[in-house]
Design a protein that fits this description.
With 783 residues, this protein is an alpha+beta fold. It is built from 28 helices and 20 strands. Among the domains are: 220 residues, Rossmann fold (3-Layer(aba) Sandwich), CATH 3.40.50.1460; 130 residues, Immunoglobulin-like (Sandwich), CATH 2.60.40. The chain has a 6-stranded mixed β-sheet. A 5-stranded antiparallel β-sheet has the order 6-5-4-9-8. Helix 23 packs parallel to helix 25. It is globular and about 95 Å long. The N terminus is likely disordered.
Length: 783
Amino acid sequence: MIRAALCSFAILAAAPVFAQPETPNFRYAIVVGNAEYEHMPALPNPDADADLVASFLEDAGYIVIQQNNLTRQGFEQFFRNVIQGLPDDSEVLFYYSGHGFQIGASNYLIPVDARISTQYDVPFQTMSLDTWIAAIAAKADLKLFILDSCRDNPFIGASVVDGPFSTQEVVETGFSSQVAPTNSIISFSTSPGAVAYDGIGDNSPYTGAFITEARSNPTTAIEAIFTSVREEVSFRTDGRQVPWSNSTLDGDIYFFVEDVPPPILDSDRPVISAGAGLDLPVTVNVTEAWDRNVRIGTQLADLEIDAALDTVTLRRAPENGLLTYTDVTRGLQLIGAEIEVALREGDTVPASALDRLSYSPRLSDLTDISQENPGRTDNLVFAAGDNQINVQVNLTVNACDIEAGAQLDPQGVGIEVTAEDMRIDLALEACRQAVEDFPETERFHYQFARALLAHKRYDDAKEHLERARDLGHIRAYTGLAGLETIQSAVAGGFQVGEAPASALANYETAAANGDALGAYGLGRQLLRFGESDVAKDRGYELLLRAFDAGYVQALNELGAYHFNENGGGYEPERGLRYFQEAAGRGSAFGYNNLGLIYTNGLGTIPRDLPLAIENLKAASDKSHPTAPTSLGRIYDGAEGFSADYQVAMEWYDLGLARGDPWGGANGAWIILNQTPDGYTNVDAAVRAAKAAALQNPDAAEQARNLLQPLSDRVLNAAAQTLLAEMGYLQSAIDGQFGTQSLSAYQQALDAYADIEAEREPQPRLISIARAYYKDPKFRVDTF
């Protein structure tokens, strides 16, 4: 069976859907069978059901991606791999067999390790059916969803919370009515709220009837097939189980095209006849750049073997990818159009059309790729007459993908480098070269923008984000929205404000076209700033779907919402669960949030300083901008903790270096009031001035208060220190602020026309600190 490890996500929203670059049309089937449940009764049929459906769909020309017995995290990984690998404008069929249930109007698929122990467990123990439907809808032109679920299970009747307002809901049997996206059909094995049965054979009544009807009537329209299935299942179960469907299909569609016989089954394939002895090479090397779909047939077509025989047979399929052939579709709505059909061992293709062969590598298992080891090799074997042709496919991953491939990029090539882990200088050079060599490849412009953001070159980054957007890159919309939303962070303000309308529009476009980060950005804005319960509810759903797609930061936003006493969802224990899940997945913000909770004790959660330090250090190690300052406060003498001012200063200085003004203000206070070894009042003044220049009014006020009693000589020496740090002053720091210092000051102001000259020492010092921060000092791509 073909198994393709193919990351992207989509939310349907009222947003423009831009035209995508032309790609081959594919027919994909995503098949999941969950049977071996750990904490509820195992099911006898789903494994066999999934295998039966997968075999039929392969015979119908689908590229089948199958996975059985998925855990919750396995579901997440499978979702990311599958959705990322789906080309735009595909035809996609999704089949699920296993446990499922409904909560309110939402339906959930149940992983095999699910355990609903508390009212807060649903987001972490289930997988939303809406997530799969919305993601597939954003990628595919034609969608089929077949759900053999709704078996009875012990979770039925449990009381859980669902949605942003802590509303208690009851887990109910079966699935609720599901709206079908445009040009799709959803077929459920039983009616809303009812139970589906396992039956007495190898397959469930529904799946058994579906495959029997589909194989027996290959040229019957699919909606008619499901009508027959409904009648057959109702008859077999004495009316206890009645399947139902919801369709928005534009017209009749088919598994097989009328007048075209079903393809030959493996067991019926004819023996390959010997052909003429041809003078052909034993091995053909095909070398190409790594991409989602690589045309490899040109070099095979150059062999000109069609002069001697009609067809070439695939004897051995590639191990690490899919071999496809551009052919006339055998079904659905693209009758007469070209479509990519997966080739299996024993399949034949016309020798005169070998140039139609393409290879799609698996977009996973690339953790060992590096600039020193950028290649991937795969092998396949053809038979041409009496000859065997070994084809070695050699693909080289571009250095820009290796150094700056983006997490969950819908148009990425399977390599993900987090902002924290990016080797910035290598990424900058690799992507600069890629953009120069391939100026029309949209992802290289986006990845170059990532490297530029890490270098704090925000204007240049914006230019390449706009270029990537214009070339059709989905993630670029999210990048532009984010850059506009967090402009304050460029100057040291870490609170994300309300996005302007233009940024919201970009988030909408990205989310509607399959970007998990776009869904996250939009959901965060709606949950924080939405003016109605409907808006907040939508924001909450978007964040949950972003999490389902693998974007862990969404958990932190949801947790923070439940710790907000002024919001409608204040529920600390629920918020703690979100933070714990985020930290469990390695999130810097998850660690930081846990650290803050255990530092202060919030709601019903007790104070625990050792646990706070452990989590805050983990956050700091992952470059969290404010975790160092929080650690400084603990070592500064938190209640019940012995003060260590030298250690506190180290943490405060790291926080200030990352743009947290409280690191500067608190560090200045320690120097002035606790006199730790190695620091002077000038050092305190420099830190206070930097804090006063950053965008936090409370920290700035405290910093100015600390500067107030300092002598002019100290303030002047601090101003000279900053000018020297900026490269404008080379003379000695003497606290006099004479002619050379005034000249250096004027040079600093000339570089930034919007900063006015000051005559008094304190405002002059702060104006120099403002000029200091005019050249960006902080990375905004890590939060």
